[in-house]
Amino acid sequence: MQATIQSSQSSQVTKETLLTPRFYTTDFEEMSKLDISTNKEEFEALLEEFQADYNRQHFIRDDEFEKSWNSLDNKTKGLFIEFLERSCTAEFSGFLLYKELSRRLKSVNPIIAECFLLMSRDEARHAGFLNKAMGDFNLSLDLGFLTKSRKYTFFSPKFIFYATYLSEKIGYWRYITIYRHLEKHPEYRIYPIFKFFENWCQDENRHGDFFAALLKSQPQFLQTFSSKLWCRFFLLSVFATMYLNDCQRSGFYESIGLDARQYDIHVIRKTNESASRIFPIALNLDDPAFFQNMDFCTTKNRLLIEIDQKSENPYIKNLQKLPIYFEMGLSLIKLYLIKPIESEYINKSIK
Q1: Which residue, among 161, 274, 275, has the nearest Cα to 220 in the 3D structure?
Q2: Among 168, 140, 170, which residue's Cα sits nearest to residue 239?
Q3: DSSP run (H or E) holding 5
Q4: What is the C-alpha separation between 341 and 344, in angstroms, rounded?
Q5: For the Rubrerythrin diiron-binding domain, which residue ranges apply (predicted)?
């Protein structure tokens, strides 16, 4: 599958890989049977927050967007456009999932349906704002094409809850960390979109709180032995995906004055801490083997990229990649087997 980026001069395509933002679908019938009665008051409070729409007037472009961005060197511009494209795709993916969930649940669970509808509003606003930013570089993401042509990955409801909760919370920490850094170092603010990140990340935080409430309303997703294994799996998956992606694109972070690795370590630690308030376990990030294995995977991922750039024969490529995939897989298994920490101990230390 390929996603089209339209340009005034040419058309480009973006290769879809395991690290590319994905589009999801789920078992809507199973979702409609979820009982939220034990946590109804929290959902009603969340709905009031969504209805307040604190960011209604936030995503309005000011005069600073009107200047020419031709002064950016080609490398920085290319990295920034890729950042905009990936972010827009991820936000649009959330919009489609939440909108469909709202439509399917409207008749059986109106409170949850309305929450999903208002979250889809937020995601559409984010995606549209990012796409307008791409327009400043004479590009745009064809969202209609994405809707029709992208492959949808099926996740059961509980997996949707784990993955989306973490993606929203990690999104919060990513945005707020960049915002706070650029607040201290405005000389690295290469484009005005970063000024919007403080309020923007509050949308991500509220969305994360909604999925936290969903998880709390379904104790079978948090209190069983298997749920601990799944929480561990999704924590590692989300962290490893971000780490590999960002280290692969370290040039973008350098352009805004950040070290990609240190930035990711900070975001991972903060997200791990946030998740421990809901998940029964947290990853042991202080075990030296954790980031050693993450760095090993990063090194191997660079080799995969080099193989793609050097070789044109797909058979030779796959043959060269096979031992690298094996080594990365083994390293990820080692990461998974690092004994996690019971969340209660983390929460006691935070207090």
Answers
A1: 161
A2: 170
A3: strand 2-7
A4: 8
A5: 82-215
Quote the pLDDT of residue 143: 80
What sign does the dihedral 215-220-223-228 (CA atoms) show?
negative
CA-CA distance, 134 to 4, in Å (whole number)?
Answer: 13
- What 3-state class would DSSP assign to 84? helix
Helices (H) and strands (E) in the chain, counts: 13, 7
Give the Cα separation of 192 and 138 in Å (integer).
17
Helix (H, G, I), strand (E, B) or coil at 13: strand
User: What are residue 14's phi and psi, to 5 degrees?
Assistant: -110, 125
Burial class (CB in 10 A: 0-12, 13-18, 19+), 309: exposed
Q: What's the pLDDT score for residue 347?
A: 62
pTM of the full structure:
0.89
| Closest among 134, 139, 138, 100 to 117, alpha carbons compared | 100
Q: Are 36 and 42 in contact (CB under 8 A)?
A: no
Q: How far is CA 67 from CA 133, 135, 189, 191, in A?
A: 12, 12, 14, 10
Q: What are phi and psi of 196, to 5 degrees?
A: -90, -5
H or E segment and range at residue 140: strand 139-141
User: How many of the other CB atoms lie within 10 Å of CB of 197?
Assistant: 19
Mean pLDDT (whole number) for 240-264: 95
First to last CA, the chain: 47
Q: Does the pLDDT value for residue 337 go beyond 80?
A: yes
Give the HSE-up count for residue 233: Cα atoms under 13 Å, Cβ half-sphere.
10
